[in-house]
Amino acid sequence: MDDFRQGLAEALRLLASGERDVWGVVLLSLRVSLSATLVSLTIGVPVGATLALSRFPGRALLVGLVHTGMGLPPVSVGLFVSLLLWRNGPLGDLRLLYTPTAMVVAQAVIAAPIVAGLTHAAVQALDPRLRLQLLALGASRVQMTWWLLREARLPLIAAIVAGFGAVISEVGAAMMVGGNIVGETRVLTTATVLEVGRGNYDVAVALTIVLLALTYSVNMALTVLQQRQRRP
After folding, report:
1. CB 14 within 8 A of CB 133
2. What is the pLDDT of residues 47-76, one digit of tens each?
3. Is 22 left (phi over 0), alpha (psi -120 to 50) or beta?
4. Which domain CATH number covers 45?
5. CA neighbor of 77 nearest in space, from 33, 55, 108, 98
6. Given its phi and psi angles, is residue 70 left (phi above 0), alpha (psi -120 to 50 degrees) or beta?
7. Angle at the Cα of 222 (from 144 to 149), degrees rounded to 5?
8. Secondary structure element (H or E) that encloses residue 25, with its range
9. Residue-range definition of the domain harbouring residue 173
10. Contact call for residues 180 and 100 (beta carbons, < 8 A)
């Protein structure tokens, strides 16, 4: 309990001090996680909607892959992305390893299957008659998909929350592809691991409290949006 009280006091001190290093870590954590969530939405929503609305050979296999991807170990994703971005790897010429961009890529790989799986479940749960009604009214396939996604907007917001939660709390992949470089790729999770290794438990608790507060703030904003969408 004393460590928690000291950590809370340290968290308030760090934030109130306005230190550039501290706020840099906070802002980088937010920027990387939001960017990765946006990329995962760009990939996951179309994939999930396509799997829910289409029938084609191999569809069951792809759905199984998406469901498997929802439980991908972050450290495995970090290893895979590192091998791709390593200087001798297929994408080594891009020189992205140990940059925030590499962290966004790794976290997007983690979040995209989660978004795709939840989108697939949300669209598939809609009344099939709605799809037939839209087609009978002359809607194109794109228009039909758009309206179905609008009908499933509440669970889609839940998909955003789940995707963001998966990446903001991730540490293994971020450490492997980012390198935890101070001032460049150090985020709240990797900074916490570093401070624990140094034995600075009060600072580690402080960083954890800041991370929880940041996660709660973003998720609360999404929850408010979701509840507003429920109003008639």
Report:
1. no
2. 999 999 988 899 999 999 999 999 989 999
3. alpha
4. 1.10.3720.10
5. 108
6. alpha
7. 5
8. helix 20-53
9. 2-230
10. no
